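Second attempt. The first submission of Enoyl-CoA hydratase/isomerase family protein had a stray character pasted in from the spreadsheet, which I only caught after the job came back as garbage. Lesson logged: always re-copy from the clean sequence file. Corrected sequence (255 aa) follows.
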Amino acid sequence: MTADATGVRLEYDGPVATVTLCRPDVLNAQTPAMWRAMSAFSRDLPGDVRVVVVRGEGRAFSAGLDLSVAGASGAGSFAELATLPEQECADRIAEFQAAFTWLHRPDLISVAAVQGHAIGAGFQLALACDLRVLSQDVKFSMAEVTLGLVPDLAGTKRLVELVGYSRALEICATGRRMDAAEADRIGLATLVVPPAELDEAVRDLTVGLLAGNRDAVVEIKALLAGAADRSHAEQQRAEREAQTRRLRDLAGRGE
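This time the job returned cleanly.
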């Protein structure tokens, strides 16, 4: 389907893929059609892609869930989901989550280029990325609680990992908004820049990410991503094993 039909498009520039939410007239509010398209993107990526940049057209990254769709009575609406058997409803939500979780893939580094509002599903999409470059005008909010809902697009664990349990609870339970300065202070931002410098900052970061050996970067991401679940001894073992693979590969003795 076309970007006009789904509200999201995928473009390539060598090893960089860009996912763009392209519904600027509704501040890139998200729909199940967008999530299905984003899930499909993970299957369409060429093997040489190393970095995925996620961005939104216009003045906002994403204002969150499109309530005109979710609040209606058709496919993907709250009303339809509520009529499904419990397991079927959970399975449907798992399909939605897949639009976000592929951005965690070990062979990619994902970068969210965030400007303006990133609310609810928009906040969770930014959290799904490995790195977040924020414009100074960013407003984050985990607003699901204001609808009587919970964040369900794979954002809760990522938020706890970044800011800790108590801060994550406060953010999610109040649904309050935070600006870029606070997001930077509590560990949500990789970089904060003036709005006019967002694109350049993302390009510079991408260049830096691509400068290193691809296999070394993949190993580094795996080491860091799994560190929280390992003991010190287990992490040290993982480092030794990863370095052994790198040494053998560089010497031409890898598998």
